[in-house]
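(Deposited chain)
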Amino acid sequence: MKTHYHPIYPDYYEIFSQEQEKEFSKVFYFGDDNNVEEAKGKINGLVNGGSIGEFLIFDSRDEVRIDRIITINGIPGPAYDEYDAYALACLNCNVPSD
């Protein structure tokens, strides 16, 4: 399932810039099929892909759309709230009693 790009809060750009200075980063994010995926390595930069979004580029050749980042080195990213809501969904279920 492809999703449309959603602009992120400007504060995240500062986080991405700080993480880019590190030799190794680990990012968990929602991939194309909304599955949680992982990218790791040195972040080489941020690339603007126009209407399809902005991407963090890793030396491992991974490309991660920034609005789909759940965590970056343990820091909550733009998609963290979506992940948290997904993880807690079963707590909101109403199970009928017999």
About this structure: The mean pLDDT is 88. Strands lie at 25-30, 36-41, 43-48, 54-58, 63-65, 69-72, 75-76.
